[in-house]
Amino acid sequence: MSTFEASRGIYDQEHFTVVEIDLPVVNGACTIGAEPGFGTPLSCDQPSDGTKTYKFTNTDINLGESHIWKCISTISEQTAKLQSGRGLASRGTASITFTDFINQDPNPNAPAVTTEVKGQGTFFGKLFSRQIFANKAVRIKNYRVEADGTIDLVNGAQTRYYISESLDSNKNGSWALKCKDELSRINDGDSVWPLPLEGLVRTDVNDTALTIDVDPNVTYLVGDTVRIGDELIKISSVANIGTGTATISTAARGANIIYTNTLSRTVKDSHTAGDEIFVCDVSDNERIDTLLQRVLIDIGVPTARIPIADWITEIDAWHATTRVNTVWIESEDSEDVLRRILTEYMIDMWFDPVDREVKISAISVWKESDVTLTESKELDFLSISRKRQESLRATRALIAYDKRFLASADSIENYKKASQFKRTEFEGTDLFGEPKTIQFDNSFLIDKDSADLLVNRYVNRYINPFSFSAIASERKVTYKVGDVINLVASSTPGFDGLPSSTERGQITRINPIYGRVGRTYAIDIGTYAPVFASGSEVVITGNLFNVNLYTQYAGAPNVAVTITFIFNGVLSGSTADNIQSIRAGAFPAGSKIIIILANGADLQAKGGNSVKGGGAEFDPESDQWFTTTPGDSKNGAVVYDAMGIDTDIYFSGATPSAAFPVADGFIRAPSGGDGGFNANISIPKGGNSGNAGSGRPVGIAGSGGTIRGAATGDDGDIGNNGTESGPFGLDGVDNDATAGLKGSGVVDNGATVVFFGSTATRYVNGNGDH
Questions:
Q1: N or C end of the chain: which has fewer CB within 10 A?
Q2: Can you give the pTM of this predicted structure?
Q3: Which CATH number fits domain 371-392+465-527: 2.40.10, 2.40.30, 2.60.120, 2.30.29?
């Protein structure tokens, strides 16, 4: 343990600070022209051959080390603050003000530094003239005098890392060193991602050519995707790369861009010599942590600042199955790229100047508190203020996603799906009295599960948000930015007026305050309302399709939980025969789900479609009929898939819920579609399609088979569509083709599923497990 940590518990503490800055120097031969130089790259013709650490302090204590200049008048830090709901934190800054002094020289051993030079000008004036104060290492080292009065300059400091921006003179003769944290490389306008390459089309090319002449400047690789105008092209082969006859080839123009998954569609087009070729970056089933790491490294953040093992642990806990699938088709400001990724996956990122690392923290109402902060103990008495964060509050959240043509315009019609989550109980006149919606930017990045999780986590986090600020003494600051805490203070009373210990928050900033008598810390906290806990009830309303309970309504807990879902008057269905109407989702092993069907809830799934009837074509040359058989009809879908998570389902009778004490609902397996009929060439007439299966949405009947080549003849008849009122849970009738199978009411998939109050009218099993 460092002596800094060992001395944390000292009640009456004495603080001081040493600021160190590393600057390049020339220790060997140093000349400027034919004259002696002043020992720095600016004042020597020779390059630097080392660095010199300049040390400054704000204490009169004898530190036992020469050339620690006692000239610091003020220190000010504004550490990174989590920007709640916006992903990317503010960047940390620091400013150190120095009182200048005379009769000293920053480079006393340089050839040109004589006794006369040492006595003229000022120390910082000469330092400023000889150095460029940009991107140099700065360390703010905060010390405590130990209990026995000794000082440990080697191990006794908490070191805070920055990089310098400038050294500026003030009108009163002092000098100010401006610093920034090591995540400032992503500041607006400082960098872009993906890094652009200077590619171009060498000769005109039409929209059918499979080989394109390209520039000799870019190393095009097989498997790259490039964008030329609005067209995306995946390279299947290359030739003569790096020469004046370089070419790239593609298997087909206008083909989908496919890696592990289809990442984009595209439209072929002609191109003109000189048109830009942008080499796209591809995220193919990529982990979030890997993508963030790639972006930071590409824009110059050292790998040593990225604690990837910690990142992996965080992402595994809160985004275990999330993968990024997209094509990055243009360079954007790196700050915008990171903010998009972080916001859409609800992750905070900031720079920690003490650990000297870029940190990430996923946002979830399931996060448990790490520590309790109590007024008059961990936080100073009467130092806590509380403010409502109305700009963050939302009772509803909405995002549009699924941009199928990534190179198309970024307008709403090019996004095919949307996800919304709402908590209407906060919109009534007794509470906020109105809905308040946050609409996220349209996303080409996320899929359905991620979109559902985003809107759920945002609303539940910011349904009624507050921020707190407080002051803490140094010996009490044993927590870090990002930690989730319980807050007990006079400004957070419970309904009974006594201080509440259930006010959960997240530390969003810990900022040192350098005072005349030592250091204190300004603590910022954002509320982190624990709306979920094991045993919680979630009320679900409306018409629902393709529901994932884990992401859409539970907010993806990372530990085993028991949670009740009340389907209050819900009508559910699924959009395809291979998609469940409701599925449990990826709850951790050991979890339990309780489903209460209330107020006539009617859970169904997609009914099986029937397909086109058989057709026939008459060939007059051979005087023969050629027939086609009807295709196979579709199966009914699954209503509820427990996915291995133990589930209790209440259909009628008493329930364990005080809010919904009586169950009243249905789960009814859809029916499969009937097979079609062959054509009757003696009439002639095409084959009829079969009837479609009941379900929600209903199965759709196919068209009648067609007659071709005959002077007369009729198409077959269209069968009946299914209904939402049954019959349920029946296999289709084969007729002259294979019918669709009945769907399933409940599928266990390894779970123990128990029914309460089920009857033949309330539960139709079909091909289910019950």
A1: N
A2: 0.85
A3: 2.40.30
